Amino acid sequence: MIHHNSDLIFRLPHVYNWGGGFDLSPDGRSVVFMWNITGHWELYLLPIDQSAPPRALTAGPDSKLFPRFSPDGARVAFLQDQNGDEEYDVHVLDLATGAVINLMPDTPEGLNEWLRWSPDGQWIYYASNREKDFATYAVGVADGSIRRLSHHAASDIMAEPSPDGRYLAVTAQSRGQDNAIYVIDLNTGEEHQLGREYSLADAASPDWSPDSRRLAFVSADHGMSDIGLYDLDTRRIDWLTSGDHEYYAPVWSPRGHRLVYQAHRVGNIDLVHHDLVAGPIFLPLPPGLCNQTHFTPDGQRLIFSHASADRVPDIWQISLIDHSAQPLTQSMPADIDRTQWVQPRHLWYPSLDAGVSVPALLYAPRALPADARPPAIVYVHGGPTGQHENDWYPAVQDFVQRGYVVICPNYRGSTGYGKAFREANRFDLGRGDTNDCAAAADFLAREG
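Above: the chain's sequence. Below: its structure in token form.
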């Protein structure tokens, strides 16, 4: 066992866990993923049956990011910048030869951190600000030609092509903290906003059904982030969830009769397996943050990333038959005892403003004497629109190992607790949210 070492804990390698960090091959036999075992992000290939160890696909001084398999599984597209300038170029790697082509050398504009292939493999979709506002573009794989595809006023974040190749579902920032989904007919260029007939204010995270006729999406219009199903022909919306939790990131099964999505519960991001006939069940997984979910082509397993307070991010799989689950990657060195790290406790405490309760995660050293008053730290997350989840935070574990109690407030403006709470610091930045964080220190002093 290696005892506490600050340098070590901050250098522990892990898989990228926050969206776009890995992709499942079309045949379901392998994953390509971002791994920082060398000290920065490189791409690796791993067979799902673990018949071989991860194989490095890239090398060099610059990080390679957000890999996506081509529809035939023969190539991988990824983003790469130069010397950390965040002016990403789109690259394509041939898996058979190892040759890499830069489709967009010396890109002068900014690109959002995602890529998608067209189903015919001829184009790669991305969002950039090459014409001032962020819009969706396509770059030709054969010749590097660029086409603009979206023409609405909102600022594009990402796009999902329909399996039949006819449509793009584009998520864009629309008004305030709301998003909108624009469905673009690539044959005609016509765009329509999902749910406009119902005055839907917020929609994001679209995922196409296998027949390209329905979109699963997320909306906070009912107060919490809920999962809806949008019928492309009738423009009808059916709601799968009803606001008991915040739900995110729906993914269709290969046959289109089930979905998987995330649920925020007391600081954890759990997975829900929803059969459209039998209903939803929460999958039995360790507490933590489950993300980046993919169905295998046979629909019998999920491949996803998982991290928690005592587990660095890795790629996992779970059987949808018997619910057995295990990691596919093993980023944590074998000689490290992860039981030295502590899981947080979710709690609420009163803010300095009357009538306001603040959610938080509390980390405490394991062996505190009953009469001890240990030093404490209020650890404030960034954003401001974000949240502190049961994820891997090496700084928090370092503090706890040194004997500190750490409280991580999800102050007003944080996600995970409904739209009203998320927007509670709009036009009030630095007052209410600061009061929430200051009250965390009072809470610790009061509770000892």
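The first helix runs from residue 6 to 11.
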